[in-house]
Design a protein that fits this description.
Oligomer: homotrimer
Number of helices of chain A: 16
Largest interface: A-B, 71 and 82 residues
Order of helices and strands of chain A: HHHHHHHHHHHHHHHH
Largest sheet of chain A: none
Radius of gyration of chain A: 22 Å
Structural class of chain A: mainly alpha
Shape of chain A: globular
């Protein structure tokens, strides 16, 4: 950046009201979170570190070697998931015209909030959280939480101030951890199958997001609407492709080592099925292709295969994918307008069509494998309700921080060239 | 997507003729393919699944652990190749102005066709295909088929209706499998060296594509021509970089585990040589740099190193790369216009320059390692002929589906904003 | 590329002076480099190859298997680093308007120079260089050199002819190897801690780049200035995200196998801290968000955690990241204009703010772990001085090749459409 351009920009600074107190209290939360993770304060961190040191000091035994190797293989998948979180979700949300900076900055911020905050909360004592925090599994679960949060912010996208994304992230993480504990760890839903998170990650994020936007339509009634352009949509398609191609690492992140390949093949087949079905149904329903369908509904196969990704076979996976792609296109083209009226809110990214309904489909399909319809259905229902209610509460809280000045625009938050 | 924008778009739907019957029969093919892969119908799928189950039930033995680990390491490379297929090839083809949606959708579709269809065909009984289908090697070979198909569609790019890409994909896969069998499995070309697919993947795809476009020039005589812009070219360079950087995982995908590093270093050296030679020769031949050369010819090193990638050393690899880069620039700047007259067709992406000639160069260089010029040369010749002839047949068939209304444009297939 | 467009372009060729002799001597350097790496000439290459062959011939012993696996795991990280080098650095530098082709081509070229040249020089005999060249560690160190070079070219970016980037690359590599040897291998700075290269990679590259531009301001006094647009900045943010997400593979590239996960978690926490601090301080200092801060300063956590990445814990990493992000924003907003006056040169990418100061911060923090302030501080000081002086010499040499005709523009080097 040259001196010249710096000068030019500084002229354009309008005296917008930067809420410094709020910003500094956000920063304080981060600093406290850091201190909580210092080993001498935190038993679970200390035991994680000492486990690493013990390993390296003592054994070159094969068992220890294998666990190091499997951890490093998981590490590779954790990086793939980071690619989905940042480039994938980030650019998928760039489709909103004149809102690219905000979409990407919000992505950066909520990932930077969700990952450390999840690990901080998990590092506290208590029966359920007794595992040591410094390991690859905690990181992967933290990334799942970040994914779910990124799904949730897709609903109000373009209508929140940057500070509100931050606040939403800070409120989301404990809500997510509560539901994760309730469904997977509390013992209330024993036998609930959701390996790749159709319900706990995708549906939770989607209905939390819908909760946030419920009844907010009136607040933005006469405001400019969301627009997109071929150039912004091309970035969006890049995000879509990044999500598609790294999806197998998302579903196989925590499966047993010898299930990784099967899980990956199932996931790829589900994505292929959804992509193809999206093409067929988008054209048949609408008469022409809608690029929004291609960018989004093609991913519905990944969402729906989540629950059963390591237990099914490629043939069934292809069928699940076809069904999910078709359902998602129907969602974008037919159901979305009706839902918006029902909840009186605008779902900018159509997360109900991509993550909500295909997630529930995935959770229901799992009944054929577990043979426990009651557990599976009640787990789904509880997740949807918990997500929607806590989302609605969160929406009420973040509304206290005010209203974005110019919806669907970078202008009120960023310096723009020219 | 807001309600408002949905309304706006629905006005723009022109009553184009959507061939619903064709679309539904495509869908039927997918559903049948899914059923073929159901374990109870298909011995090879069942044995693949049961092998996985057996492994996890019985042994924590080291040998089984090692095979799981090597499979997972291959899995990582399979994801890298997916990145090449979608983001790499997809965005490399975005350079055509006003055709970005079509290029990317076509990429999504042919990948979603090639991978499952390859695995379905390979899962049928018969001597040659007796291997179990559900394993990482089948997935990698399926991805190779998808790569070859993506090369092939580069030739007619911009002049096919979306349905024609689908039909081309469905016809390509069996043709590719036939040639793969003929050259590598039939025993007729024993000792043929082509580890990274200079011939079987790159040259096959290139000459299949040229076959498809041969004699089609007259069909598009007075139509608008292919254009590009700095913005579309920047996306194209992104695709190019993604191809470049993941190329080592393409060539080392199926080499012996202790050859992966050598193969990767050789591949990187070949790419470095080609990139540098592209710079030098583009400037010397043309007087100024042509961005198309940088985006494409820089990759020719990866194409040419394919045949010998695990058997040569970095010094030779650098030389092969330099030669391939030079050859590819000469192809784009000098040979391409002549070839277009010869085959009376337009090669939109210049696949002969990037995949055709450098592929053949790679196949010929392998003679220095195998010492079997006859086998190597006849394998090359047969591949080129089989590809061109089957491509020409495919071209004739897909021409039956009609002619794209507006060449090099998204307009006739997609809703466009504004 | 159609015949038509080829014709159109050939008209636009202006008789610019292509320095053919220079180009051919560059090519000659590449060819000589290739010959140097031919095994029969070069003991270190031959021993590397024969080690690979020996392994595969003899043992399926577990120890050999483990070393193959660990090498392949490192290989995966080497690909991640390639993604950072090409897409990451390449697109981060696309923010300059009308200069995208040059930024990306320069990236391609300097990567293609640095990697083989580093390995060629390292393959020469002599005590220090006796390790065999053909292994994954050499490749990783070569990639580090390429990263450092990419940092360096960020300073003069937009004001060098393409030939000058090439010359700068050829001069940089031996300078980098000299400093690497001096600090890490000569034994003069025993106990110097810099695992992830805060000093040896980031600070070296930054101060080398500042050396190159020192006192060049007058040469470009009345020239057009560097500009950016939302579209170019969006590509820049893509580069930023790619750097962010693959950073853990950069810092953990060469750590002990059982330290990879801890290193990765520390790195991610540092990046999260820096991203969040960037948001807070950019808004407080400037009154509004500056996208340049988000794209760059968010990465400062990765720079600063380098030195201590495998020895600290996540809590401290988060604090280091927060400090680095804050420092980097202060650099971009307050220090940069003053520094430009001091060295009388324009630092296009602000590398002092992203790699210089945060790198030094990282090196200083390591004192708390090593407890050797003298070694650590003198290593930092020597690196900064060596880098700046050799950078200044390099700047003087490449100035002999003339002056870019139109700064911050692709026009004088590339054919542009329309």
């Amino acid at each position: 950046m040259t001196e010249h351009s710096l000068k030019k920009q500084s002229k354009k600074v309008q005296p917008t009201s930067v809420n410094k107190k709020l910003l500094l209290s956000f920063l304080l939360i981060f600093i406290v979170a850091a201190l909580v993770l210092v080993p001498s304060f935190n038993h679970n961190v200390a035991s994680g570190i000492s486990a690493i040191n013990a390993e390296s000091l003592t054994t070159p035994a094969a068992t220890s070697q294998f666990s190091t190797i499997y951890d490093t293989l998981k590490y590779e998948r954790s990086i793939h998931i980071l690619a989905m979180l940042l480039v994938g979700f980030g650019f998928l949300m760039v489709f909103v015209r004149n809102h690219g900076y905000s979409s990407i900055t919000a992505t950066f911020l909520v990932v930077s909030i969700a990952i450390p905050m999840y690990m901080v909360i998990k590092s506290f004592g208590g029966e359920e959280f007794s595992m040591s925090t410094i390991n690859i599994d905690t990181l992967l679960f933290a990334e799942f939480a970040a994914a779910s949060l990124l799904i949730a912010i897709g609903a109000p996208l373009g209508r929140l101030k940057m500070d509100q994304y931050v606040a939403m992230g800070l409120l989301f993480v404990p809500a997510y951890i509560f539901n994760e504990w309730l469904i997977l760890e509390s013992g209330l839903f024993k036998g609930f199958l959701d390996t790749g998170g159709s319900i706990v990650i995708h549906a939770f994020g989607a209905y939390f997001g819908l909760g946030v936007i419920a009844n907010t339509l009136s607040r933005f009634k006469n405001d400019p609407v969301c627009e997109n352009t071929p150039s912004t949509n091309q970035f969006c398609l890049l995000g879509s492709m990044i999500l598609w191609l790294f999806w197998p690492s998302f579903t196989s992140a925590i499966v047993a080592p010898d299930r990784v390949v099967l899980t990956a093949i199932n996931t790829i087949f589900a994505l292929c099925g959804a992509t193809f079905a999206t093409y067929v149904f988008s054209k048949i329903i609408r008469g022409k292709l809608e690029i929004e369908d291609i960018a989004n509904a093609a991913l519905a196969g990944g969402v729906a295969i989540g629950s059963t990704c390591d237990m099914t076979t490629p043939g069934y996976a292809l069928l699940i994918g076809i069904a999910a792609g078709a359902l998602s296109v129907i969602g974008y083209s037919i159901i979305a307008p009706k839902l918006e009226k029902l909840i009186k809110g605008t779902d900018t990214c159509g997360i109900n069509n991509l993550h909500g309904m295909p997630g529930i489909l995935g959770g229901i399909v799992a009944i054929f494998i577990t043979g426990r319809p009651f557990v599976q259905l009640s787990g789904i229902l509880v997740t949807v309700c918990v997500a929607f209610i806590l989302g609605k509460v969160t929406g009420t809280v973040i509304n206290l921080l005010g209203k974005k000045e110019i919806p669907y625009s970078d202008e009120d938050e960023f310096f723009l060239a020219e």
